[in-house]
Amino acid sequence: MEVEYLSHGLPLADYQLTKADHRRQQEKVREHEWVQRQVAKFPTSLSEESKERLRQLLGPPVPAWKLHRWRLRLYCGHVIEATRIQDSPRPDEGICDEERCPECGLDPAVIVAFEPLGPVADPPPETSPPG
Ligand SMILES: [Zn+2]
Fold first, then answer.
1. Is residue 10 assigned to a domain?
2. How far is the CA of 7 from the centre of ligand 1 (A)?
3. Rounded to the nearest whole angstrom, what is the distance from the C-alpha of residue 75 to the centroid of ligand 1?
4. Would 11 be classed as within a structural domain?
5. Is there a domain that residue 59 lies in?
6. CB atoms within 10 A of CB 87
7. In whole angstroms, what is the distance from residue 42 CA to residue 14 CA?
């Protein structure tokens, strides 16, 4: 399936924040604080069994060739690179619309503009189905 990757707010370096961006950032910060409060209620040490269950819930890591690279401009103004599942036509869908800024540490920082870069890795050569 061919995915048509979208871009928004180009050129990234000149992007001006909108009112909607400010509102989204404020909502994210509030959500984030709420999650932090819930996490703080958890017992500080998890048993190995619970950790294993969590790992299973999170699933296996996605292979590199199933990822797409994006250049993202974050709320703080920094432009970073990040990866997303290649099936997503845009990098800010669902719960993935924020990043922790590696430049200034802003966390969460909503994505305000983005452009697709390319696949992380080439797909492996065609293999015949097992059987
Ligand atoms: Zn930043």
1. yes
2. 20
3. 7
4. yes
5. no
6. 10
7. 42
Q: What's the number of domains the chain is made of? A: 1
C-alpha to C-alpha distance for 110 and 32, rounded to whole angstroms: 12
Nearest to 122 by CA among 83, 60, 62, 64: 64
Contact between 113 and 11 under an 8 Å Cβ cutoff? The reply is no
53, part of any domain: no
pLDDT at 36: 81
50 Cα–ligand 1 center, Å: 34
What is the pTM assigned to this prediction?
Answer: 0.74
Enclosing domain of residue 26 = 6-32+67-120
Helices (H), the chain: 19-40, 48-58
Least confident range from 30-34, 102-106, 110-114: namely 30-34
